[in-house]
Amino acid sequence: MSEALVHLLQLVVSGVVTGGIYALVAMGFVVVYKATRVINFATGEFMMLGAFFAWTAMSALQAPFAVALLAAVAASALLGTATERLVLRPLLGQRTISVIMVTIGLAAIFKGLAQIAWSGDYRSYPPIFPRAPVELGPVLLPSRQFYPFLIAVAAIALVGLAFRFTRTGIAMRATADDQMAAFGMGIDIRRVFSLSWSLAAMTAAVAGIVVGVIGGISPQLGAIGLRTFPVVILGGLDSIGGALLGGIVIGVLENLAGGYVDPLLDGASLKEVVPFVVLVLTLMVRPYGLFGTREVERL
Amino acid sequence: MLIGNYKETYASDEALFRTPATRAWMAVGALAALLFPFLAGDYLLYLADLMAILALGALGLNILIGFTGQISLGHAAFMGLGAYTTAILASRLGLPFWLSIPAGGALATAAGMVVGVPSLRIKGLYLAIATLSAQVIFEWVFTNWTSVTGGIRGLNVPPASVAGFRLDTDGRIYFLIVAVTVVHFLLASNLRRSRWGRAFVAVRDRDVAAEIVGVNLFRTKILSFMVSSYYAGIAGGLWVYFTKVITPESFPLSLSIQFLAIVIVGGLGSVKGTVYGTIFMTLVPEVLKAGTGVARAVWPDAQSYLFPLRDVVFGLLIVVFLIFEPHGLAEVWNRVKRFFSLWPFAK
């Protein structure tokens, strides 16, 4: 195979890896948005806290990785529920700006607390996976990208299946579809809201751990949450399939821009803005995203 | 106690400051503002300048969010645009401040017009994210268009001067900054009562209903974006002459969020509230700084917790105000006033 083609494949494959992680983060957004019509600007901070929980379990308590992952997910679930109960519920039905701002406020609180608890230093997990890079045909992937990617895919599949087949998942989808009807059929809406937040916090924790394994952990880890907005907008704010596709499209585009355009611009990195340019274009052409529900206003 | 609303002339009906008491307080305030730079120390002057600039920027955002109900997470980008325009005109072409600052405002207005266009199709959360991308893209341009903006090293700007008198200290530039800010606050108070201001509020409360009673939605929304970015651009221009150096890091997303916090804490849609919010949100970190300075005597590590603590307090303020005091400090102030004017008949 020619060198140029291998280079392209390499970029696409690592783009898919990045995209898988974006998709996982985006699912956290979608789950909350579907149920409660709130965009959680603190998603990145939930990721960061999840990553730190797992790090603490591994380094202070010497827990094996799998146990640490589960412990972090459990702790995040509690955190998600508590957040919904204490902060979001009093603001149910308020204007959009209030709901946006309250999650931004939460993000600041979490970030500050994490810095107090774990300091601002960079940390990394103890080695978890075999070190040898993984060969996929002609493409080489570093092991610390490949295995976390598998975890991300497994988590996406798990959440997707739970949403599709479990009783709770069906209750959540029903609530998203028509709140009044769901309420009439005996679904406890408040419980659904609280479950959505804990589910979102759980997916965020897994995503945070995945990102932490790849690039290290610090209170700044949450910044990646911001980069997921283009993904959810492209896919549609209330579509899980859209989050998946959007994640991969943005991941690949970003990597291609980084691989082909950035070497031509001296010092500038187009990679950083490509997702946001895609976002602007999406909003111009299809404001509700590829698979989102078109909002129809009835008077 | 104000017990009647009796007016004999149209002029008194249209007056901005309606009661003799208000006029007296405004006069006292103006006098205090004039004397302040001669009495205050460097640190207080620095804070006053900073607050006046932030208040001007926040007022722009309040016009957009509080009056018109449109959300922007990219307000700092418009301030940056105004600031860069001013800085480039002043440092490269040597334009005086009374040309370069309005030019910055004009360019920001034009950019606001462009960014405002999608607001007709998209609302609420989607609009918030669209403006967020404006923030990211503008910031990227400031950093990477090195030949024009000077990249990360930024630009140095000569101080403003009036007829050979250089406004090169915080005390001298104070007069320029405060004068511009005060004028723009008066303009905003009047805007609120004008035909356009009422159209803004109508769009905020129910856009479809506003359109039915004859408000042109598109023009109103765009105008609101333009006014808002104009305020930000002017604030950016003042910022340039205040700091005399400009880098892309001066206008990050966190500044946009700071503006939002000022608007929320001060009171959505309240011109006075913007002032209270700015003072409050600027003083809280300073008080924390002083507090950790004192705590260092007993606890040497206190200083290292200052920044994270600032984040936590900042976030807590936003959350607590939204949940318990959604109308902000303006409403708190009104309550206090009411308490005293009704005392002892009601509480």
Number of helices of chain B: 15
Multimer state: heterodimer
Q: Approximately what portion of the residues of chain A adopt beta-strand conformation?
A: under 5%
What is the tally of beta strands of chain B? 4
**Regions of chain A with pLDDT < 50 over 5+ consecutive residues?**
none
Task: Give the ordered list of helices and strands of chain B.
Answer: HHHHHHHEEEHHHHEHHHH
Helix content of chain B: over 70%
Give the N-terminus to C-terminus distance of chain B in angstroms.
Answer: 15 Å
Task: Map the helices and strands.
The complex is a heterodimer of chains A (299) and B (347).
Chain A: H1 3-36, H2 43-59, H3 65-88, H4 96-118, E1 134-136, E2 139-141, H5 143-165, H6 167-177, H7 179-184, H8 189-215, H9 223-226, H10 229-235, H11 240-261, H12 274-285
Antiparallel strand pairs in A: 1-2
Chain B: H1 10-14, H2 20-39, H3 42-67, H4 75-92, H5 97-116, H6 124-144, H7 146-149, E1 155-156, E2 160-162, E3 165-167, H8 170-193, H9 195-205, H10 207-212, H11 217-243, E4 245-246, H12 253-266, H13 271-295, H14 306-324, H15 328-342
Helix pairs in contact in B: 2-8, 3-8, 3-11, 3-12, 3-13, 4-5, 4-6, 4-11, 5-11, 8-9, 8-11, 9-11, 12-13, 13-14, 13-15
How would you sum up this structure, described in words?
With 299 residues, chain A is mainly α. Chain A contains twelve helices and two strands; from the N terminus they run ααααββαααααααα. A two-stranded antiparallel ribbon of chain A has the order 1-2. In chain A, helix 2 crosses helix 8. The radius of gyration of chain A is 19 Å and the shape is globular. Chain B has 347 residues and is an all-alpha fold. The mean pLDDT of chain B is 90. At the A-B interface, helix 4, helix 10 and helix 12 of A face helix 6, helix 12 and helix 14 of B.
